[in-house]
Design goal:
Largest interface: A-B, 26 and 24 residues
Number of helices of chain B: 0
Distance between the termini of chain A: 41 Å
Oligomer: heterodimer
Largest sheet of chain A: 6 strands, mixed
Number of strands of chain A: 12
Structural class of chain A: mainly beta
Number of helices of chain A: 0
Order of helices and strands of chain B: EEEEEEEEEEE
Order of helices and strands of chain A: EEEEEEEEEEEE
Number of strands of chain B: 11
Shape of chain B: globular
Helix content of chain B: under 10%
Helix content of chain A: under 10%
Distance between the termini of chain B: 38 Å
Chain lengths: 114, 115
């Protein structure tokens, strides 16, 4: 069975600085997608970025980018120029070809200090 | 565009009472539908998913059940709530079929407190 692990329950970053959130996963599938979701205090789940396993190029969405290391089964999220609005829970998620649902990590709570 | 509606936003229910949470999706046909639960300090746990009307798969044994009476309607129910059913419940949808390159799109959630 696939698993997703986020080893950092909480992280803190200074406004305008860069922070990296870690995520590792375990799977025997060769084709899959990985996602990062953001959950602000409103608790709405917001998609931040996605990465296909077959693409070697790391995905980027504005200030958000990932470092995808397929062999190491690692999928970290880098937030550049952190803003106060980035404060939220961040969830790493896996979706493979053999099932339709997303498998989530336990999340990392990110605080942004002014 | 597609939208997902989930209600109620908050609910306080006594132990032993019934539960009905509803979720509807607009702007798409025959979506995959999901119910997740988020307990305090934990990630999201998949409870049920459905690939079509009347087709429900349960991921974990529990006090809850799900039904899909219409194509874009997904209902989470319980006959008798337990204290352990408290949590934040999220409904989600994804396009028809298993397109794993598509993210799940979530509703705004229901905060359930069982007293």
């Amino acid at each position: 069975a696939q698993t997703v692990t986020q080893s950092q329950p909480e992280m803190s970053v200074q406004e305008a600085e860069t922070v990296t959130l870690s995520c590792t996963y375990d799977t025997s599938e060769s084709d899959y997608y990985l996602f990062w979701y953001k959950q602000p205090p409103s608790r709405q789940m917001i998609l931040v970025i996605r990465q296909e396993a077959y693409k070697q190029q790391n995905a980027t969405e504005n200030r958000f980018s990932v470092n995808f290391q397929k062999a190491a089964k690692s999928f970290s999220l880098k937030i550049s120029d952190s803003q106060l609005g980035d404060a939220a829970m961040y969830f790493c998620a896996y979706r493979g070809g053999s099932q339709g649902n997303l498998i989530f990590g336990k999340g990392t709570k990110l605080s942004v200090k002014p | 565009s597609q939208t997902i509606h989930q209600w109620p936003a908050t609910l306080v229910q006594p132990v032993g009472s019934p539960l009905s949470l509803e979720c509807t999706v607009e702007g798409t046909s025959n979506p995959n539908l999901y119910w997740y639960r988020q307990a305090a300090g934990r990630g999201l746990q998949l409870l049920f998913y459905s690939v079509g009307i009347g087709q429900i798969s349960s991921e974990v044994p529990q006090n809850l059940s799900a039904s899909r009476p219409q194509d874009r309607q997904f209902i989470l129910s319980s006959k008798k709530l337990l204290l352990s059913d408290s949590g934040f419940y999220l409904c989600a949808w994804s396009p028809k079929g298993i397109y794993y390159n598509s993210p799940l799109h979530f509703g705004n959630g229901t905060r359930l407190t069982v007293t």
